[in-house]
Amino acid sequence: MNALLETQGLTQAGASKILGMPQPKISAIRNYKLRGISLERLMQALTILGQHVGSLLLRQRPIDGPY
Questions:
Q1: C-alpha dihedral, 32 to 37 to 38 to 39, nearest 10°
Q2: How far is Cα of residue 43 from the mean position of the Cα atoms in its chain?
Q3: How many Cα atoms sit within 13 Å of 41 on the Cβ side?
Q4: What value does the mean pLDDT take over residues 18-36?
Q5: Is the pTM of this model over 0.90?
Q6: Quick check: 8 pLDDT over 70?
């Protein structure tokens, strides 16, 4: 997200307004302190910043045998 904010020329205050997050949360994200920030909220923020976000679920192979 840091690269996106820099590329778009957004300050923490500007990102706060666009993303609807308090500025201290933006600061925390920029400093890689993600405790208390949900994956859903991060995905929403990335979508607002123009990123396509998806999920890929893979079945784990059993330890004793094939799929």
A1: -20
A2: 5
A3: 13
A4: 94
A5: no
A6: yes
Using alpha carbons, select from 39, 20, 40, 42 the residue that is nearest to residue 30.
Answer: 42
Q: Are 44 and 50 in contact (CB under 8 A)?
A: no
Residues 23-62 as b or e (16 or more Cβ within 10 Å = b): eebbebbeeeeeeeeeeebeeebeeebeeeeeeeeeeeee
What is the mean predicted confidence (pLDDT) over 45-59? 86
Cα separation of 1 and 4, whole Å?
Answer: 5
**Residue found under tokens 């990335």:** 46
Q: What angle do CA 25, 31, 35 make, to 5 degrees?
A: 55
Q: Which two tokens stand for residue 4?
A: 């996106």
pLDDT for the residue 53: 85
